[in-house]
Structures are given as C-alpha cells and as structure tokens.
Amino acid sequence: MTQSTLQTEKTDQLTELVTASRTAIDINPINLSGAIAQYVQDTRERANTWMSELAIPTRRDEDWRFTDLSGILQHQFEAPPLLPVEKLFIEQFILPEAENSRLVFINGVYADRCSNLTGIPDGVFVGSIAQLPAKYHGKLSQYLAKQPGHQEFFTALNTIGLNDVAIIWVGKNQIIEQPIHLLFIASPHGQPMLSQRRCLVIAESGSSVSFIEHSVTSEFGCPDAIASHPYLTNTVTEIYVEENATVNHVRVQRDGGAAFNISKTAVSQSKDSHYTSHCINLGAKLSRHNFDIYQNGAGTETNLQGLTMIGHRQTADTHSAVILQHPHGVANQLHKCIVDDYAHAIFNGQIYVGQKAQLTEAGQLNRNLLLSSKGRVDTKPQLEIIADNVKCAHGTTVSQLEDDQIFYLQSRGIDASTGRNLLIDAFAAEILQALPIHSIQQMLARCVSCRI
Known about the structure:
Elements: H1 3-27, H2 34-51, H3 70-73, H4 87-91, E1 102-106, E2 109-110, E3 124-128, H5 134-140, H6 153-160, E4 166-170, E5 180-186, E6 193-203, E7 208-217, E8 231-241, E9 246-253, E10 260-269, E11 274-281, E12 286-295, E13 301-310, E14 315-324, E15 330-339, E16 344-353, E17 361-370, E18 376-385, E19 391-400, H7 403-411, H8 416-432, H9 438-451
Parallel strand pairs: 1-5, 4-6, 5-7, 6-8, 7-9, 8-10, 9-11, 10-12, 11-13, 12-14, 13-15, 14-16, 15-17, 16-18, 17-19
Antiparallel strand pairs: 1-2, 3-4
Helix pairs in contact: 2-6, 7-8, 8-9
C-alpha cells in the first residue's frame, strides 16, 4: 500500500467519524434555545475548525505508542439510533443508595422514563442540558468545553457532535449526602455505531457531592463478553471543584467486550478543594482513559485510586496527569492492573510539581499483577519536580503470583486453585474496599470473583 493510498484511507475514516458525530445531532435533536443554543452551536463550530488541523492518533505519536487504534479504523461507524431499553435491564444496575437520584442516558441521549430524580434536594440541579434552569444559563459558558485539552482529537470529535449533556450543578455550601448515579447505556445494533457522551459536574464553593459515572451496554449476558456487537464510545467529563468544595467520583467502565472506549476526564480544583477518584476498568476490547487534574489553588488535595482487570485480548490504557502549581498541595495515586491471557495494560502517570508548588506532598504507585506469561504491561510513572521544598515519591512493580505464597496457603489446607483466587482477590480488594458506595463494592467484587 502506497503512502498516498494510506493517507487517503485515513482521511476517509476521519470524515466518516466526523459525519457520524454530526448526524447524531439530527437523529436525536435536543431542544435548546436562547443563549445556550447559540453557545453550543459556536462551540461545535470551533471544534470543527480544530478538527481540520488534527489527525487520528497513531503509534508514531509518543502518547499513543503503546495503543494501537487500527481496530477502530477497521469499522465504519454510524450515528446511533435512539432505541428503547427494557426496564428489566435497567433494574439490574439500580443502586439502592441512589435509587431516587439516578440519571440515565441511552446512546448519549437523556432517557427520562428510566431516570429517577425525586431525591435530589433543592439547590442542586441534576439533569439534561435541555432542562437546565434559566438561572444557570449565563454561567454555563464559563464551564462547558472550557477545560484544557479540548483540542485533542477525540475531545474535539466529541465537541463537534455536542448535543445532550449530563449536568450535576451543586450550589454554594450544599452538602449532598446521597450519591448521584449517572448511568450511561450503549445500546448497539447490527451496524457499528459511534456513541458520544458528555458530562459536566460543578461543585460550587463549600459544597460536597459524590457521583458514580457508570458505563454499561444493553446487550444481555455478561457485558464483557467478547461476542458482543462492536461500537465506539467517546466520552468527555469535565469537573470543577471550587474553593473548599469536595467531590467524590466513582467511575466504572463495563462496555461490551467488542467495544472501543475512549474517555477524557478533566478536573479543575480551586483553593482548599478535595477531589477523590475511584476508576474501575473492566470492559471493552480497547479502552483509553485520559485523566487530567489541575490544582489551581493552594491547599488542594487530590486522591486517585484505580483498578484495571482485563483478559482475553483486551487492551486498557490509562494516561493520567496531575499538575500542581500552588503551595501546600497533596496528590496521591495508586493504580493497579490485573492482566490475564493475551491482554495488554498500559499506565502512563505524570505528576508535575511547578516552581510555585512549595511544601507539596505527592506520591504515585503503579502495581501490576500478571496472571499469564502471554500478558503484557507497559508502565511509565513520571515525577517532574521544579520546586525545591517538597516531599515526593513514585514507583512501579510488575510481578506474578509467588509460588511461596501459594505453597504457604496449601500448607494451611487450602488447595492451589483456591489459594490463587484468594491472592488475586486480596490484590483487588485494596481498591474495591475503598469504594464509598457499598452496592458498587458488592457488584464489582462479584465480577472479580467471576473472572477468576
């Protein structure tokens, strides 16, 4: 294949993705009016301008050198239809703690009949962008599509098709005890589809909120089954944690086993704010999560915990960056990967401590457990320090189950297979037991047990 032919094919594939992104707006139009409608339209046009200068990432790009997107390029993705999802299917994902604070989106579009927001207190908005009260309209342009990184390829692709948006907006000094459940359902059909999701979370000063960003598929059976239909989900989540606010974010990715999941999470933290994230990646044939946190004020605290568990020929890539630019910041990250069969886990984590970020404490650890000699892990923890009065550390480990540990359990009357499972459970439990929502803990613990 000549270079000219290859370039033509890539151009055609880019055109198909942009066309599918735009077509989704026409298939499922959202009723917007006034200043919001104009702002959304202007934002789409800006993204379209950026896209004319962008190309689909390849392994020649440093940030993508371990992630092969050729599987995506083998499909011709179309805009998704709005398909009904059986209520029975929804019920299996209902969380008791968030039974009446649930917001459901199907193929990126708000599903009113599946949602239940009766438990949302006054002073808090949870819903679709089309339902946003008038008092927020003037402020929306300060937040939506304003995070750094909006000119990256997949983020720009999402913005070109900016349509419906899941919004959580917590007013000043509002303390929300009940978690909010954002359930994003991909409902694939015969033709590969592009499903784009957008989420905006704003916690104003002095507020506190917990939310679950939960990605699943409507296909029956195990959502991770490799026999599912191929589809591409492209998600952008923007989170603003304002002064002295607290946000707890649980992210669970269980897209179908033949799916492709590309996600961007961008978090902006103001002075004395607290952000905690629990990211669990189990599904999709290929997943990539770009996770950027910006500490934009002094005394800011960031805690990141993640667990990736993959098998078969799955690829899961986590690229994170924590940018500290102010004094007295705290950042802690622990990311674990369990890799079986021919699966491939990638971790690239950066913590950047700027010159003004004196008296900072930062720690990063990536631990990987290989269950198969055919599995692969590429890990690159990065710690870049410009300040001179800090306490920082980082590290990584890649290991298999120790024969001595299994032998010890056998000497206590536990057979080798059970002992192996206990060790894997214990490795995952450090992350799962830290989840703040008990029902999510139980759901994911059952999934881990099923896999091993």
